[in-house]
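Reviewer 2 asked us to include a model.

Predict the structure of this chain.
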Amino acid sequence: MAGDAEGKLGHAQIIFDMTFLKKNLVYVILLAVVLVFALVKPLREFVSDQFGMTATVDKVVAESSFADEDFDVDLKGMNVPDAKLSDYKGQIVFLNFWGTWCAPCRTEWPSIEALYKSKNQKVKFILIAMQDKEEAVKKFLEENKYTAPVYIAQSPLTPKMLPDVFPTTYVIGRNLQILKKEDSTLDWNSADSQAFIDSVSK
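Predicted model (structure tokens):
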């Protein structure tokens, strides 16, 4: 009799334990997850990195692209009609900031002119003269018989677009992404430059 009583008591205890476990299963699982997350450092660091990576990617994209407001610039043509920089969104753009007073700028002009003559069907060329007078710019173009489109900005440039040094050149993609930035002189008519323009303008 005593054995039967103990057996029934043990059976009842098992039933109670199973019922308690079922009712609190969610809490048990959550507790286990919290303990694993707290104790396993690599897992904790991995999850943290995934959240951090999203912010980093967004920052990289922002830094490597122009925004619509950056292209909201009125341009006065020196050897072409007036335009707005935003007119060229959706196209590959060769954007160069230079000045007649800038010796390195004048040095790279022949290679830009040569690139323009060979690639103007694939790429839109916009050369913006900075800190310059219209008369000086027009005289420079006429004397050298340069034909690449030159403008003077008629509205402020955003800090993102405003160059720190001259010359500064951007090759900009159809979605305003910065495909190349060059803040020094470059032989734009070299085989490498020609190949690069061909690759991004397909």
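The two ends are 92 Å apart (CA to CA). The first helix runs from residue 2 to 23. We have added this to the supplementary material.
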